Description:
The structure holds 2 protein chains of 2 kinds. By secondary structure, chain A is mainly β. In chain A, 0% of the residues lie in helices and 50% in strands. Chain A contains no helices and 10 strands. Chain A is globular and about 45 Å long. In chain B, the strands form 2 sheets. In chain B, strands 2, 4, 5, 6, 9, 10 and 11 form a 7-stranded mixed sheet that branches. In chain B, a hairpin with a 6-residue loop joins strand 9 (88-95) and strand 10. The interface between A and B is medium-sized, with 27 and 29 residues.
Amino acid sequence: GENVGLHLPTLSVQEGDNSIINCAYSNSASDYFIWYKQESGKGPQFIIDIRSNMDKRQGQRVTVLLNKTVKHLSLQIAATQPGDSAVYFCAENALTGNQFYFGTGTSLTVIP
Amino acid sequence: EPEVTQTPSHQVTQMGQEVILRCVPISNHLYFYWYRQILGQKVEFLVSFYNNEISEKSEIFDDQFSVERPDGSNFTLKIRSTKLEDSAMYFCASSRDTNEQFFGPGTRLTVL
Lengths: 112, 112
């Protein structure tokens, strides 16, 4: 049968605005999370990670927030730039293993 | 900056043929992974490899798949008898520990 791709959530923001990308994870035993950026035709690129003993972590222009109560993860990008246009995935892992489960992804488009 | 490399970038094969996808992980990394991404879908874990053996594998990684680290630098994924549904991007990744994984650019496998 026809292979129908997933419909990615999309987010369009103006250059210079802040972006917030959300992810709901599934496994309450997951204790390590990574946000990846994937540009067209390339492999996932690490952005930032967070462990379950934290609820916030900041990097350069990016902040990850973790809410374990509702199993929710968000990525905030400050002063979004055209080069930030990509698909963003969250990935979860239980530190007892090394298998990461990727989310569906969100397509971010930055409008110049 | 060291990076994961993969060859070939694109592989076209006939259904039923064997293919070998090659990866050179980052040199001081100890954990190696294969993922696949069917067009328009999420990244899916296939297998992880540590200390010269498979440490975890997913349901996708059936008897048609095998991995090998034939020497100190290469990490290969073999598909013995390719099927149409094996068409996907295959990403190799490596990590120094069980945390941040660095992904290669991927090999696009097309099965005709």
